[in-house]
Every structure is written in structure tokens, then in C-alpha cells.
Amino acid sequence: MPESDGPTDVLLCLRAAVSATPEDPLALLKIKDASGNDLDGLQGAVSVTFVSQESKAPVHTFEVHVPTRMLRNRELSSREGGPPKMESEPDAFLPLSALVFAILQRNERAGSYLRNATTAQIVPISALERAPILEYLTGKRSTWDGVTPLSDTADSEATAPSDVAATAALTKGDAERPTTSKRPFVPDPADTEFVRHLRSKYELVLLSRDDALRGSMTADADTDTSGSRAGGDLLGLRAMIAPRIEAAKKRSVASSKSSTSSSRSAPSAVNPARKSRAQDPIILLSNSPTALINMFNVKALLQDGVFIPPEEARQQAGGIPELVVTIRAPSSDEPTSGQGVSLSRRILVVDSAEAVNRLGSGAPGSDQDPWSRVICVFTTGQSWQFKSYRWSDPRDLFRNGMFWELTGAAMGVYVRWTNEAPSAQVKNWNVTHLQLGATKKTPLTTVMLQLRV
User: Fold this and answer.
1) Which of 134, 140, 234, 272 is 20–30 Å from 113 (CA)?
2) Rounded to whole angstroms, how far apart are CA atoms 23 and 46?
3) What are the pLDDT digits (tens) for 244-255?
């Protein structure tokens, strides 16, 4: 069959080709370089060609980095405002190379797979989602929450005759196999009678919750039936212990009031500013794959004043980021201790709204609200980053701030290369521009000076 030029969905083609030959999932895929030569891996690959199962003729060809409908994180499918759109947020979807690499590395353990993906500069699939995604691609499961539905345009294109014929050609052998209809089950009458007799004579009926509370005493006075249960006087027992419960409650309230009054009368030995900041402040990074500051190099930048390129820092860490990065920053409450030693304050760094929510459990506006501790937000200039934040509009976020009770506003930091023009949409955002050089060390600038907490 000649190669199809009509529009098609790359994820449907990949899943059809992989599930057609489960013993060798990549038998119907040809990975090619720029010269059209076949490759065994993705090193130097530029395209992936799907071939027919019968004639081995090319059916579809896609660029190796074309985005698929598979989300990088399935939680994005249920975010507020709807799932991402491929036209506006292509970085939110896994490319074809990531799925093919996951199939190539399907027998590797999680740590080895992440290291190999980092070395090959392939977008890795998270450890929790890797197994179900492989099951979806190989046809072991029919659905996956991380796959976005086809749009109206894509639906009409996907049902075009050329696509139907091309996709069917990948699994033509399976389609020609005869199907057998299942015969309805008819139980044997002798077996049915045996089960009925077994249940009626030997089956024990388990006690309900009410039967268990009434106890196991027999009612000899109320009934002549042997083994019947007598109802316990639970209401009488509750009436008997009710005064003791009320007395215990009063003693507890009196004890709490006395402890509160004594704490108020005692002189405060703690600096009010220090006491109000008893919880560690939070810096929120962008989790975009193109972010120059990520969980791998943020500590070296903000604590040591050295910028390490993100990919180099990722390789040094083995491709596995920390969930929370802890850095030390100078404290503005007490510049030096009695011995002249500079004090520092611990700052927590995370890269998602979900991670912020895990750092506290208080209601919005309360002392335990983790969002009230966010003092700085790093951005790459992409507005989709703020979809799940407390303020989804970056103009409101950087004008009102999250940590406004103590610092006045949450500081916004827009990071870019020194030779790169700033994004047009950040002009209306109240952010500090941080320019980084690829080959020189970056000293501690006004960013850390403004983060003194």
C-alpha cells in the first residue's frame, strides 16, 4: 500500500501498530534518520514510519517529535478550565519519541529508564504513569485518563476514508480472523437443586450490626423459641453514663480556658515578626520543560549564586528531581547573632500548585494556609502555568500577591537568556526580569535581596 498523505492521528496509529504484534511491539515501526536509513534506537532519528502488517509497505510517516494526545500528567485532564489544547499548549503533551522510547525500554526498571531517558534527551514518563500508559499502548486496557479526546475537527478527519483504510492496514491480519460468538450459559438443573439444598441446610447467616450490639443472651422469658436473642437496654446504659460524659466535657473546657489565660498573661519572649513567620516561606517554580530554572538547578542559583544549565543539572542529579528543595536565605529579622554569625532562614522550593497544597491544610486566609506563605513565583512567560494557582490571572497574582500580610506582594521573576527578547505578554505583569548567560556565572542579584524573610 502506498504511503498515505491524508490527515491522521499519530496516537491511534501507534496503538494499532503496537497492539497488532504484542510479542514484538515495534515490528510495524521503522525508525529512520535524515538519510532514510533504518535505526535500532532514537539516537539521530528524525521520523517514524508505520508499515502494513501484510505487505510491509509504508502507511504513515510522522516526525519523531510530533506531539500526541497523551498528556505528560493525567491530572491535567481534570484541571480547572478544561484540559490543555494542543494548539496553545503543545508542551503539555508527550511527543511520539517519548512513547516509542517507553516501548523500547519497557523491560527496564524505573530508575534505569529515567537515567536512559535523561541521557538520550527524551521526555520521561513519570514512574506512576509509565505502567498504565504501556498497557494502553499495547491494548491491555481500553482507556487512559491522560488521553485527551479528539476535537470535532480531528474526529471528522480521523474518520476520513484514507485514514480508516490506512489504520486498518496495520491490523489487517487481525481483522480477517474469524470471530466466535459466545453461547449463553444455562445452569444444570441438578446443580441448581444441590446449591439450593446446601444453602437452606448448612449456610450460616451472619449477624447484622444491631444483632451484635444486642449481645448473645437468650430470651427465655419473652419467647419459647430456643436460641432467640434478647434486645439489650442500650438506651438505659446511655442514660446512665450521660452525666459522666457531660462532667468530662466541662472539665476539658475549663482546663483549656485556664491554659489560654495563662499563656496570654505570660510575657512574650519571641519576636512578633519571627512568630508570625513560624512556617517556612515557599518559592513556586514553573514546571514547564523549557524552564531555565527548575528543581535541579534552583538551589545552586539562589543559594550559591551559580547558574547551571537545566539539562546539565538534570544529568548531574540522575534525572530524578526532589519533591521539595530546601535552600537557605539571609534573614531580615535578626541580621546577626550575638557572636556575629549571620542568621539564615529556610525556604522551600516546589514546582506545582499540588505541591504547595501538600505543605499545609488550612483554609484560605488562615494561619495554616500554604498559599499565604508563597513569596516568589518564577515564570517562563506562559499563562497556562497559573491555571491551577490561587490567582489564575498573572496580573492579579503579581499585583495582589499571596504573602501580602508580611511582604506586600508575591514577587514575580521572569527568567530568560541574555540574548533572548522578552515575551510580549509579560509587559503587563509586575515581574522582575532575570537574564541568565549560558557560559558565565551569575552572581546573587536583587532576586535574593528581595527574598529576605
Assistant:
1) 140
2) 26
3) 788 888 888 877
- Residue intervals in the chain for CATH 3.40.50.11990: 274-450
Query: Alpha carbon 416 to chain centroid distance?
Result: 26
The Cα 76–Cα 96 span in angstroms is 19
Confidence at 189, pLDDT banded by 50, 70, 90:
confident
Distance CA 1, CA 324 (A): 53
58: which strand partners? 51
Q: Give the pLDDT of residue 78.
A: 82
CA 382 to chain centre: 19
Q: How sure is the predictor about 104, in pLDDT bands with cuts at 50, 70 and 90? A: very high
Task: Tell whether domain 274-450 is in CATH 3.40.50.11990.
Answer: yes
Mean pLDDT of the chain: 75
CB 375 within 8 A of CB 407: yes
pLDDT value at position 86?
Answer: 85
Calculate mean pLDDT across residues 319-330: 81
Mean pLDDT for the stretch of residues 440-452: 48
**Residue 100: band (very low, low, confident or very high) from pLDDT cuts 50, 70, 90:** very high
Report residue 81: phi and psi, to 5°. 100, 0
Q: What is the pLDDT of residue 62?
A: 92
- Stated pTM of the model: 0.38
pLDDT mean over 344-371: 80
Q: Which of 30-34, 261-265, 442-446 has the highest mean pLDDT?
A: 30-34
